[in-house]
Hints:
The protein has five helices and two strands. It is mainly alpha-helical.
Amino acid sequence: MLLTLDLNDARPLHEQVAGAIRRAIGEGSYRPGDRLPPACDLAGALGINSNTVLRALRELRDEGLLEFRRGRGVSVAGRADGRALLVQRARELLEEGKRYGYSRDDLITILEGLT
């Protein structure tokens, strides 16, 4: 799994990690039953604390995307539904808009103009 974090992103690191894993599942890089690398390996690859990765994994478990199994690690429980992916992308759009000085209402106006 190739995950990257944007250190200029204002979102907390655990949210960035959860978003990257959520996208990987939604895009089919990981399928139901596939095991994820151990949290300590992910943390080492990303250069962050393993507790940060564990927090992201717990969030995804609570969403029903991951399963924790004693002795077998973390595996994908199911595919991210379309809504979960859209919510993640909408959050990213809001953050990107803030960086360019656009408010939530400005972005809604832009989106309404696309239809």
